[in-house]
C-alpha cells in the first residue's frame, strides 16, 4: 500500500519530484526518462508507468532551462519507437506459442487470425491513435505483432505516432506549462490529462456493459 501511495504521489507531483531528481542526478535523468517511456510502451507488464503527464512535465521543466528540449524530443520519441518495436516482436514471436491450443476458448488460434485481419484493415490507424491512450498504447503493438501485422506498415505508423505523441505533450508542456495559471495548478492539469486520457476507455467499458445488459 505504501508503494502504491508513493507511486501515485510521484505521478501527481512530477512537477515537484522531477526538479529534485534533476538536481541530484544531473544528465543521468535523461537515461531514466528514456527507460520509463521505453518500459511504458515496450513492456506489457508496466502499463501503469506515467506517460502523458511525464512528457508534459519534462517539457515544462525544459522551458525553464533545466533540460534541453531538443534532446528530450529525440530521446523520448526514440524510447517510444523502440518500446513499440520491442513489444511488436515479443508479440510476434510469443503469439503463435500462446495461441497454440486448438481446444481452449481463450487461447484459440482463430483469435490470432481475427487479430491479423483486424490489423490488416485498421492496423495503421489503431497503432497511431493508440499512442494517445494509456494502457492501450502498451498492448496495441503486442497485439499487432501477435496478429502478424506487416512490419513495414507497423514501423511507419509507430514512428509517426511516437513523434506525434512525444511532440504534442513535450512541446505542450514547453510552451504552456509555465503560464502562471497552469504552473500554479500543474498538479490539477496533470490529473486532468490523466483523466482525459483514460476517459475513452471508461466510456467504452460502460457502453459495452450496457450492451451486454440489453442482450
Report on this model:
The protein has 215 residues and is mainly α. The protein has one domain. The chain has ten helices and no strands. α3 packs parallel to α5, α4 crosses α8 and α5 packs antiparallel against α8. The termini are far apart.
The gist of it:
With 215 residues, the protein is an all-alpha fold. It has helices spanning 2-12, 14-25, 28-42, 52-62, 69-98, 109-130, 136-146, 151-176, 180-184, 186-214. The model has no long low-confidence stretch (mean pLDDT 77).
Key descriptive features of the protein:
10 helices; elongated; mainly alpha; 215 residues
Assembly type: single chain
Number of helices: 10
Instruction: Please give the radius of gyration in angstroms.
Output: 19 Å
How far apart lie the N and C ends?
39 Å
Strand count: 0
> In one word, what is the shape?
elongated
What ranges have pLDDT less than 50 throughout 5 or more consecutive residues? none
Name the beta content range: under 5%
What is the helix content? over 70%
Number of self-contained structural domains: 1
Order of helices and strands: HHHHHHHHHH
- How is the main sheet built? none
Tell me the layout of helices and strands.
Layout: H1 2-12, H2 14-25, H3 28-42, H4 52-62, H5 69-98, H6 109-130, H7 136-146, H8 151-176, H9 180-184, H10 186-214
Helix pairs in contact: 2-4, 3-5, 4-8, 4-10, 5-7, 5-8, 6-7, 6-8
Amino acid at each position: 500500500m505504501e508503494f502504491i501511495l508513493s507511486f501515485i504521489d510521484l505521478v501527481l507531483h512530477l512537477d515537484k519530484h522531477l526538479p529534485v531528481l534533476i538536481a541530484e542526478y544531473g544528465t543521468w535523468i535523461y537515461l531514466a526518462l528514456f527507460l520509463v517511456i521505453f518500459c511504458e510502451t515496450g513492456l506489457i507488464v508496466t502499463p501503469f508507468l506515467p506517460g502523458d503527464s511525464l512528457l508534459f512535465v519534462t517539457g515544462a521543466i525544459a522551458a525553464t532551462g533545466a533540460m534541453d528540449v531538443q534532446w528530450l524530443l529525440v530521446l523520448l520519441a526514440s524510447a517510444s519507437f523502440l518500446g513499440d518495436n520491442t513489444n511488436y516482436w515479443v508479440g510476434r514471436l510469443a503469439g503463435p506459442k500462446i495461441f497454440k491450443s486448438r481446444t481452449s476458448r481463450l487461447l484459440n488460434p482463430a483469435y490470432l487470425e481475427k487479430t491479423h485481419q483486424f490489423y490488416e484493415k485498421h492496423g495503421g490507424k489503431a497503432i497511431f491513435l493508440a499512442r494517445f491512450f494509456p494502457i492501450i498504447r502498451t498492448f496495441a503493438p503486442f497485439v499487432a505483432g501477435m496478429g502478424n501485422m506487416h512490419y513495414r506498415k507497423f514501423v511507419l505508423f509507430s514512428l509517426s505516432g511516437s513523434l506525434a505523441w512525444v511532440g504534442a505533450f513535450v512541446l505542450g508542456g514547453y510552451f504552456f506549462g509555465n503560464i502562471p495559471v497552469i504552473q500554479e495548478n500543474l498538479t490539477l492539469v496533470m490529473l486532468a490529462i490523466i483523466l482525459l486520457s483514460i476517459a475513452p476507455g471508461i466510456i467504452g467499458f460502460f457502453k459495452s456493459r450496457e450492451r451486454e445488459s440489453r442482450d
